[in-house]
Amino acid sequence: MTASVNQVQAELWNGGSGSAWVDNRVALDQMFVPLARFLIDRARDTAQCVPSGRLLDVGCGTGGATLALCAALGDRWQFTGADISAPMIDVARSRAAHARAPVEFITADVQTHEFPSAHFDLIVSRLGVMFFDDPVAAFANLRASARPGAALHALAWRSPAENPFMTVAERTAGPLFANLPPRVPGAPGQFGFADREHVERILIASGWTDVALTAVHFECTFAQADLREYASRLGPVGHALARLAPHERAGVIDALVDAYAPFIENGVVRFTSACWHIAARAPDI
Hints:
This is Methyltransferase domain-containing protein. Keywords: Methyltransferase, Transferase. This protein is of the alpha/beta class. 42% of the residues lie in helices and 24% in strands. The mean pLDDT is 93.
């Protein structure tokens, strides 16, 4: 694992958050299938001009999107997935070995990791770029790792107001937890890239060109049977619940699950993800 300057996120994703994502991997992969498909389409566009090349998946987590990209582009491309979370990378490596997929997964803080210079033809990310404590440094590091003219395609959440499903737990449990941390606009975290102008400034300051943010929406689903575990483990509320005794947790989790009722239909949880498609290009020289 490379050294991380982002200690808060490193501790988070190598602790409770990483474990929660590992344990909920199947539901989360299903939930974000439409986002992976979107990135696959962008990657195929690149592959039409660059039939063989190297792809980096930033914040790859347990590897679902990386492996889907590998299956879509085939063996003429080389694939690397990077994430700060060692537990998630362990799962990604196991999945790649089981699938016999030629993907290299590395535990790395992308903000500081020494990637080969001018190496990647395409850099992608499915909801993995919002967590850097110095995003300009991180994207400058990624730009240095990109070959001249290489494309960047990343997906990031828009605002909490545009993603009501993602704030159900906080709105429901907030009155029950006096110390539930508030969302800080622009801070590292799920909605850290909600502001378009903020993200544009980051990309331009880090040396990328042709920067464009486009609002996109994805209809996401996962099984209702997975909702209780999802609601009780993910995000700030999941952290707060972990500090309660089991008998205290049960009532709060029941209230959380009830609050998701508007998003449930015929045993399936359905919601819309409001994201930015962040596109940019490494300078030609």
